[in-house]
Amino acid sequence: MSQENVELVQSWFERWNRGDRDFSTDELHPDFQIVSRLQSEPFEGREGLHRWMQEIDEQFREWELTGDEWRETGDRVVVLGQLRLRGKESGVAVDQPHGWVFEFKDGKVFRIRHFARPHDALEAAGLKE
After folding, report:
1. Where does 2-124 sit in CATH, by number?
2. For the whole model, what pTM was predicted?
3. Cα(67)–Cα(43) distance, integer angstroms
C-alpha cells in the first residue's frame, strides 16, 4: 500500500503543475484536512481544498511544486522539494526548499501539511535526515 500512496502523491504533484486541480473524491478521506502556513485553522473537506486552491490562485500567478525526494513511512508520505511561486500583484518570484507530509487513512489522503523547512516535515513524520 505504501508504494501506491507514493504514486498517488506523485500524481497530485504532476496534476497540480499541469493546472489540473480537480482531485477525485475517491482519493480524499471524508475527514480530509489541509494544514497551511497561510491560515491558522486547517481547511476541511473537499470544499476546504477548493477554498485553499482558490486563495492560492487569487494570490499567485504561478505556483509550482517539485518533489525531489519521496519517503514513505507507514501511513505517511513525506516529500522534500521546492516551492516556486510568483505573486499575482507584486510579480515577486520565490523559489524555496519546502516539505510536505501527506497522511493516509483507509487508503485515502486524510491530511496534508506544509513545511517551509524540509527537515521540519521529516521531523513531523518521525523521520531523520
Report:
1. 3.10.450.50
2. 0.90
3. 23
